[in-house]
Amino acid sequence: MYVCLCQGVTDREIREAADNGISSMRQLGKELGVGRQCGRCACSAREILREARRPDYLALANMLAQPA
Ligand code: FES
Fold first, then answer.
1. Which stretches make up the BFD-like [2Fe-2S]-binding domain (predicted)?
2. CA 10, CA 15: separation in Å to the nearest integer?
3. How far apart are CA 57 and CA 7, in angstroms?
4. From ligand 1's centre to the CA of 49, what distance in Å?
């Protein structure tokens, strides 16, 4: 799904950027141009970035539950 129409950036690209270490809207703007034109995408992009940076507690719990 397109998040930033001005720059043609999708939620997938934002998640990939987060996986590659992008952790702030400033960095996201520099890297992909998100939020740099009209700014309407900023709230959605911030939420996707925050969600992507959140630890996956279920995966972590499953990993810890594995016998050694
Ligand atoms: S929709 Fe992202 S800057 Fe306009």
1. 2-51
2. 9
3. 32
4. 15
The CATH homologous superfamily of the domain defined by 2-65: BFD-like [2Fe-2S]-binding domain (1.10.10.1100)
3-state secondary structure of 54: coil
Q: Model confidence over 26-61: pLDDT tens digits?
A: 999 999 999 999 999 999 999 999 999 888 888 888
Query: Residue ranges of the domains in the chain?
Result: 2-65
- Which atom of ligand 1 lies at the shortest distance from residue 33's CA? 3
Q: Is 5 in the pocket of ligand 1 (CB under 6 A)?
A: yes
Nearest CA to ligand 1 atom 2: 4
